Amino acid sequence: MSGRGTETDLVTGAFSYSGSRIAELLIESGREVRTLTHHPDREHPLRARVQASPYRFDDPLALIRSLEGITTLYNTYWVRFERGRTTFAAAVANSRALFEAARRAGVARIVHVSIANPSIDSPLPYYRGKALAEDALAAAHIAYSIVRPTWIFGGGRDILANNIAWILRHMPIFVVPGDGQYLVQPVHVDDLANICLRAANGGSGEVVDAAGPDAMPFGALVRAIRDAVGKNTPIMRVSPAAMTALAQALGFLLRDVVLTADEIRGLTAGLLVSHRPALGHISFIEWLDESGPTLGRGYLNELDRHFRMRRTSAHA
Ligand SMILES: NC(=O)c1ccc[n+]([C@@H]2O[C@H](COP(=O)([O-])OP(=O)(O)OC[C@H]3O[C@@H](n4cnc5c(N)ncnc54)[C@H](OP(=O)(O)O)[C@@H]3O)[C@@H](O)[C@H]2O)c1
């Protein structure tokens, strides 16, 4: 697949959300791109240009073979919540297996997409798991960079902003957990992808946050989305416990996991914000002005995307 003199990178999840934008930017810059995915046959505009192989976390030699000839591995692999055999412990072990395979395959650099504010001491398994994956990368004896996004929006496949808009369009009320004053600082998927490409050329061990220019209280963000979609749905404050119950009830109706109790805890604890100067340039509020008319017209279902469609690997 590689032409002479053309370097090849591998982006995990190139037919999914952020990996798709990273892959597009790499192709635009003249690089060959391969991907690992659970859905190599998924319909996607990049399918004709990106060679896809299944994740083989269960087979170290196959995993190494899939990474041979790669200059930079851009890793977006992670799971949003635990379900069945999909656990955070498995995601950490799979991440470790991926890093080890990359080292053995001779990959020059890993750009690893983590999350803002990971912590080994976090009571939230997602954030703790992310910290453990970062530690595994630092111990993997390979050059690396870590990019920590806050909350990714834009590009037509962002579940959070889209589904907030969907609820505002279709439900009689919208509920916000707690006082809604905790900050969020979304980063556009294009900014994240550019930050990842820059990280590939930074010093090894560099850790950067990917956050946008607008930090605002969550309640204000929901009101901005409501204005953008042209609705006047009442927004009510409820306790995090009530919010969890309502999210579960809505999830039951939609056959999805709308928001988990842990995600509500992370949100209300102000973890979706960066404490460093913003590297992203695209304003959430300006993006909303353009995207409002189409945002949330359809619901994006996480279970359909990652759990119900045909899977090629037995291991999440
Ligand atoms: N989205 C956000 O707002 C956000 C915020 C902060 C940090 N992050 C981090 O940014 C990275 C990329 O996020 P993203 O939203 O762009 O992810 P994504 O595209 O939905 O998924 C990235 C990769 O992980 C795989 N994956 C996702 N869920 C899975 C599951 N339940 N079981 C097995 N594999 C699964 C996908 O498999 P397929 O290729 O088969 O789809 C894909 O290869 C992740 O590390 C995430 O933790 C995301």
Written overview of the protein:
This protein has 316 residues and is of the alpha/beta class. It has two domains: 8-152 and 187-211, Rossmann fold; 159-184 and 214-305, UDP-galactose 4-epimerase, domain 1. Helix content is 39%, strand content 16%. The chain has eleven helices and 13 strands. It starts with 7 loop residues before the first strand and ends in an 8-residue tail after the last helix. Mean pLDDT is 95; it is low at 310-316. It binds NADP nicotinamide-adenine-dinucleotide phosphate (NAP). NADP nicotinamide-adenine-dinucleotide phosphate binds at residues 12-13, 15-19, 37-39, 76-80, 86, 113, 115, 149, 151-152, 160, 306, 316.
Short description:
This protein is of the alpha/beta class. It has helices at residues 18-28, 60-67, 88-105, 125-138, 159-170, 189-199, 218-229, 240-254, 261-268, 284-291, 302-308; strands at residues 8-12, 32-37, 51-54, 72-75, 109-113, 143-149, 152-153, 174-177, 183-184, 187-188, 206-210, 216-217, 235-238. The protein has a seven-stranded parallel β-sheet with strand order 3-2-1-4-5-6-11, sandwiched between helices. A two-stranded parallel ribbon has the order 7-10.
